[in-house]
Design goal:
Blueprint lengths: L2 H22 L3 H12 L2 H22 L6 H24 L3 H20 L12 H18 L4 H9 L4 H26 L4 H27 L2 H19 L1
Helix pairs in contact: 1-2, 1-3, 1-9, 2-3, 3-8, 3-9, 4-6, 4-8, 5-10, 6-7
InterPro entries: TM_pro_TauE-like, TSUP
Main location: membrane
Subcellular location: Cell membrane
């Protein structure tokens, strides 16, 4: 493939992933990876997607800084930091293909059912701190196995009927922290190709343009459209694991 065509596909994939992530808060790799994993080798595509996703999360955190719920997010993060190393250990010692497929089926069934659910019930009761940390642990564990750290916290927020700003303010810092932790572990286990840094530099304009437009779209859509968007992305992400 000519270099110009490769760079064009890179920019389109990164822009699309950044836009979706800016709108929903997650799913950059699910969208951008559909193209990047076909254009680049996995050893180049995976760290590139992780680096780009961290860039998107940084943009999201800045844009949504007034909505961030730091106390709840820190509880999620503490739980997640415990779950990720366990997932890394499982990846090295067991065949996790069945676990990924099973999780993909569960997420797909949940998203499909919720898309057909006529009403959204809002939970008003308080949740114990240990339960929030447990959700974070599950997110970190599953994220280490599937590269989808935000799936479980997002589902939990949806089940509680959280408004979109409250949901993003709780889950966004968690996803960012898990991705930084994951790329730190990746760098510690392997040397990154210099081509990854070149591709990252080339994709920065598309990355920030897509992120900015996605955040603008997030502020303009109503609660119903946001929820359906999140559920559709969960459904797509779940199917991709099956």
């Amino acid at each position: 493939m000519p270099d110009v065509a490769t760079l064009l596909l890179l920019s389109v994939a990164v822009f699309a992933g950044a836009f979706v992530s800016g709108l929903s808060g997650f799913a950059f790799s699910a969208v951008a990876g559909a193209v990047l994993l076909r254009v680049f080798q996995p050893l180049e595509a995976v760290p590139l997607m992780m680096a780009c996703s961290i860039g998107v999360q940084a943009t999201n955190l800045w844009a949504l800084r007034r909505s961030i719920r730091w106390e709840g997010s820190l509880l999620l993060i503490v739980g997640g930091l415990i779950g990720v190393p366990i997932a890394v250990s499982l990846l090295q010692s067991t065949d996790t293909h069945l676990l990924r497929r099973g999780f993909g089926i569960v997420v797909s069934l949940y998203a499909g059912y919720m898309l057909l659910r006529p009403t959204l019930v809002t939970a008003s009761e308080a949740v114990g701190r240990h339960w929030v940390a447990l959700i974070g642990f599950g997110g970190g564990l599953v994220g280490g196995l599937t590269a989808m750290p935000g799936a479980i916290p997002t589902i939990w927020c949806d089940m509680r009927g959280m408004p979109k700003s409250e949901q993003r303010g709780l889950v966004q810092p968690f996803i960012a922290a898990m991705q930084v932790f994951a790329i730190a572990l990746l760098v510690g286990h392997q040397d990154l190709s210099s081509k990854v840094f070149v591709d990252l530099a080339v994709s920065l304009p598309a990355l920030f343009a897509g992120s900015a437009l996605g955040v603008i779209a997030f502020h303009r859509v109503n609660e119903t459209v946001f929820r359906k968007t999140v559920l559709v992305l969960l459904l797509i992400s779940g199917i991709s694991l099956i």
